[in-house]
Amino acid sequence: MMWNRNEQTICAISTPHGVGGIAVIRVSGPQALSISGRICKRLSKSLSNEETLQSHFQSHRAYFSEIHDLKGQKIDEAVVTYFAHGKSFTGEEVIEISCHGSPYITGQILDQLVQAGAKIAEPGEFTYRAFMNNKLDLVQAESVLSLIESRNKSAAKVALRQLEGHVSKEVEELISDLTWCLAHIEASIDFIEQGIEVVDTSELIHKLEKINGTLEKLLQSYESGRLIKDGIKVALLGEPNVGKSSLLNLLLQNDKAIVTPIAGTTRDVIDGEIIFDGMKYIISDTAGLRETQDEVEIIGIDRSRQEAEKADLLCFVFDATEKEWQRSLQMATEIQNSKKIFLLNKSDTVSADELYRIQDEISMSLGLSGAQEILATSAREATSRSHIFAAIKSAVGQFDYLDEAVISSSRQFEQAQYSFEMISKSVDELKNKTGAEFVALYLKEALLSLQKILGQVYDDQIMDRVFKEFCLGK
Ligand SMILES: Nc1nc2c(ncn2[C@@H]2O[C@H](COP(=O)(O)OP(=O)(O)OP(=O)(O)O)[C@@H](O)[C@H]2O)c(=O)[nH]1
Ligand SMILES: [Mg+2]
Where in the cell is it found (predicted)? Predict the structure, then answer.
């Protein structure tokens, strides 16, 4: 998808398609001003004299103008903003037309711009041009997309930090350190025959291990970055009738699932999304787990297990009104998933002492550290809601380093991972004192991967992966 950069002037509607108070049409390229001038009265007055055109308009200033078609028929009244070459998002000459948000009007204006010589932009082409004109690197380009797509506070914050260049700065420093190491290794290959030691091996190992320490932190941030962007997937599991559907309804604040005193009510997986305290959660309620002959229920239980495998976290629910939890305990240990929390529901039905006794008993049977590991909840008490979300968040991981560099795209992760592996290999070689040539080879690979993260090196495949998900007009 390598676009014919810079030569053509592109245009697109940058606001959502549909009816709105205003809509913004963006025109970018070497002829943005002259093409727009053919339909903007305020611009066309000066257009007759090419020399005065530029001098009549100041960058970053908005001008009120009538918009007409190429035959002079009025279409709308609009505000036209001019960004000079080198001073816009794309780095090119840009005109933004803020017109009335009618699909008919925007369609007409776009049509006239095309007739006047502009080309309809491909999705992501404005950002692509910004990248090509060194206005942003690839991590920042990806963050533009994340920012557009962000639906909650944490996701927006991570994307904004990337756009500001936090990740880029860290990767740039790694590139510079790695370049130093590579240069010294290459020099030592040249000088080794003359018996000159260019760099102390232990110093080199130390530097490389430090680079890998930073890379490791970045790699770890990916998991949190992904959860923040996509949401934490939580599955409610447990025996029939323990209150899973009631808890789902409490968490989603919506009577989404059917609740009855009959065991085996939920047959299918029911899920919903909710934002709580700036984080997105996708919660699914499942069929209660038990031995049954009921054909529908058997399928439902099978789906519960599949759902458990997809989840980032399992919420295993116990029932405080039960007398024994043998079956529940067995199920809780049977289902293998890295992260679990345990809820003791219907806590409103038993005394505090009794509750503590049960929590202690369950925690002992599960081999946990104590009663506090089993969260007492009640689907009938609103306070349980925030307690459950807090327990999920803390069980899933560290989200307090949101202020640091967080990577959130699989592309960035894969490149960082490869770089990490190559550096580890070169450290091994250095420690084993095998040939410096191998070390240089691995370090070159590692460096290339880091450069690909920022787009200092790129190919069609990388470009496709970054820009294919963009929407029109960005
Ligand atoms: N007192 C009390 N009753 C609850 C609580 N949670 C659920 N119940 C009741 O327990 C019964 C079962 O609740 P559900 O939410 O349908 O249970 P479930 O785990 O989804 O059951 P299945 O779908 O059959 O697996 C209903 O009568 C609920 O009103 C609670 O915290 N306190
Ligand atoms: Mg249910």
Answer: Cytoplasm
